[in-house]
Amino acid sequence: MDQIVFHGTGLHTGAQCAVGLRRRSGGLAFLQDGHSAALDELSVVRADRGVQVRSDSGLQVDLVEHLLAAMAGLSIRRDLEVQLTGPEVPLLDGGALEISRALGALDLPRDPPCLRVVQAGDIHVDGTRYAFEPGDAIEIEVDVEFRGVGAESARWSGDADEFLLEIAPARTFGYSDEADELREAGRAGHVDPHAVIVLEPDGSVAPPGEPPRPAELARHKLLDLLGDLYLFGGPPLGRLRASRPGHARNQRAMRQALEYGLLEPLEHH
Description:
It is globular, with a radius of gyration of 18 Å. Helix content is 22%, strand content 34%. It has 2 domains: 3-105, 2-Layer Sandwich (Ribosomal Protein S5, domain 2); 115-265, lpxc deacetylase, domain 2 (lpxc deacetylase, domain 1). The longest helix is centred in the last third of the chain and has 15 residues, at 216-230. It has helices at 65-73, 97-105, 160-167, 179-184, 216-230, 247-259; strands spanning 3-9, 16-27, 29-32, 35-38, 43-46, 52-54, 60-61, 78-85, 115-117, 121-125, 128-133, 138-146, 150-156, 172-175, 196-199, 238-243, 263-265. The chain has a 5-stranded mixed sheet with strand order 1-2-8-3-4, with helices on one face. It is of the alpha+beta class.
C-alpha cells in the first residue's frame, strides 16, 4: 500500500476536508493546492483550540496537531508526502488513531529522536510548568485539572505500541458553555459528538456523547503536546513533565528551552 486518503468535516469551519498520506522516497513534505512545504518551513499562525500553520509558499491549514502527533508518536520523519485539501485536517476520530494506523499500514521507516534534553531546568509559561531532565529514553508526563472532572495525569515512554494503545485514541474535548463564544469567533462550527467529548460544567457529558475513558483528558493533552513538540524536532530524548499544558504555551516553552540551552538537536549519520 502506497497511499491512504481520509475525507471528513472540519471541526472549526464545517468544510469538507481531506488528508492524503503517500509513501515516497525523500523528506517529509506537505502539499496543498499546488503549494509545497517541508516541516521546518511551517510557522504557527494560531494556537487557540487547535494549531494552524502556514508556509511562505502559500500553504495554510488548521487543526494539524493530531496529524503531527501521529508522526511524533510513531517517529516518522521522512519518506512521506501529506496531501491536504481544504482549510483543515479533518477531525476523524477526534484523536490520532485512524491516522496512526494508516501511517503504520504504509510501512514507513522509524527514525530515532532528533532532539535531546541536555540540561535540567524548568520553564514557566502563564502558570504552566515544563520540567526538563536529561535521560537515555523518551519520557513525557502530563498533569491536568479540569472543572467537574478533577486532576488527571498521563505518561508516555516513547514506545510506538504504547502510543497506539493509550495516547492516539484519546479524543479532543471542550465545555458546552464555551461553545457559543467559540462559534462567535468562527470556531467549533461542526462538533461531532462521537469524536468530541462535550463536557457540562459539572463534568458530565452532553448527550449523545460517550463519557471520557480513564484519564482520557490528560492523555489527549499529552497527544496535543506531542504534536506541538514535533514542530520543533521532538519529542526529545530525556524527560519532560508538563503541568496544565496548552498549544500556545507548549510552543513558547519549546522556544525558550532551545534558547536557554536545555535542548539541542541530535545529528544522525
